[in-house]
């Protein structure tokens, strides 16, 4: 799978699509939706759709698609190739949500939780298929949140479609199985081929499964944690695992506010306030010694000012 467009800038989300088969523009079609990478603290989450004519459902079954979680990586790759080879009647599209997109969405002032982000990704992909001329009739979705509410939401958004939302839809409906394979293969490729924009040297790629409970993943997070700036953009900052490690291992920061002077609060805690970094003469530490600026400042060619 070619992820070239995403690899150009993996800090933002990206949509990848196959060609739209001509038959999908002239016959009633079914469409399946599934995701990959919802739980990990590392890497993107990928939403996928797959669609084909209702009259060709049996041919889709002949491709031997199955729930991607029950397959080995090699089996998924082979089945994705089968889906790609069936381009005369099967099409697909993917929305790759970068870790940066997930984190900034969930941490913004107006809360935008993962379920809402997932729903919007799915809705966007269905709308893409319709805008591309696919004659959709049936939509099958693996649920995110309560199935009945999600089904009602999609039915109201797309009143002309027959929407079915079910738990474990990827094991019930072949068209959802096909979507799960496309999404999982894309995520696997994105994680394996991740290009770190940060200057980390030769990165240790033995980060385990990427799930918060994996000891290897936790060890990797600690290894590449900066006490002030946190983690590379490969990490979802909004996950509690990442936030808890920053709270326990990161540098304590005190901000000036209306209740108490930040410098005094920091001094009482025997710590340094953020303002002291702003007011400090260029090239010195709080103790007056020579100091090498963090790459955040040097990469942006930022220098401290003694006065405004």
UniProtKB/TrEMBL annotation:
The keyword Transmembrane does not apply. A divalent metal cation binds at residues 34-35, 142. This is Ribonuclease. GO terms for molecular function: metal ion binding; RNA binding; RNA-DNA hybrid ribonuclease activity. Belongs to the RNase HII family. Eukaryotic subfamily. Its EC number is 3.1.26.4. Endonuclease that specifically degrades the RNA of RNA-DNA hybrids. Its cofactor is Mg(2+); Mn(2+). Pfam families: RNase_HII (PF01351). GO terms for cellular component: ribonuclease H2 complex. It comes from Gadus morhua. Residues 28-251 form the RNase H type-2 domain. The keyword rRNA processing does not apply. GO terms for biological process: DNA replication, removal of RNA primer; mismatch repair. Transmembrane segments: none annotated. Manganese or magnesium. Binds 1 divalent metal ion per monomer in the absence of substrate. May bind a second metal ion after substrate binding. The lineage of its organism: Eukaryota, Metazoa, Chordata, Craniata, Vertebrata. The gene is rnaseh2a.
């Amino acid at each position: 799978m070619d992820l070239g467009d995403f690899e150009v800038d993996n800090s933002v989300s990206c949509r990848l699509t196959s060609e739209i088969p001509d038959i999908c523009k002239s016959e009633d079609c079914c469409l399946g939706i599934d995701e990959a990478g919802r739980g990990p603290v590392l890497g993107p989450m990928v939403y996928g759709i797959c669609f084909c004519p209702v009259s060709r459902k049996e041919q889709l079954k002949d491709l031997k698609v199955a729930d991607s979680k029950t397959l080995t990586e090699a089996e998924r790759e082979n089945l994705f190739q089968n889906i790609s080879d069936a381009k005369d009647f099967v099409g697909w599209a993917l929305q790759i949500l970068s870790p940066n997109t997930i984190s900034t969405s969930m941490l913004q002032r107006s809360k935008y939780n993962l379920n809402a982000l997932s729903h919007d990704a799915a809705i966007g992909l269905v709308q893409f298929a319709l805008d591309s001329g696919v004659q959709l009739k049936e939509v099958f979705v693996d649920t995110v949140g309560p199935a009945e509410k999600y089904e009602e939401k999609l039915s109201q958004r797309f009143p002309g479609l027959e929407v079915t939302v079910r738990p474990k839809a990827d094991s019930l409906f072949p068209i959802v199985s096909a979507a799960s394979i496309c999404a999982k293969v894309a995520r696997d490729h994105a994680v394996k081929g991740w290009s770190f924009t940060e200057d980390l040297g030769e990165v240790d790629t033995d980060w385990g499964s990427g799930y918060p409970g994996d000891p290897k993943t936790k060890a990797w997070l600690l290894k590449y944690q900066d006490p002030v700036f946190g983690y590379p953009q490969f990490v979802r900052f909004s996950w509690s695992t990442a936030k808890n490690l920053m709270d326990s291992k990161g540098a304590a920061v005190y901000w000036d506010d209306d209740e108490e002077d930040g410098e005094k609060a920091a001094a009482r805690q025997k710590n340094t306030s953020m303002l002291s970094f702003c007011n400090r003469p260029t090239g010195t530490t709080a103790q007056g010694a020579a100091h090498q600026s963090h790459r955040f400042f040097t990469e942006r060619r930022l220098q401290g000012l003694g006065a405004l």
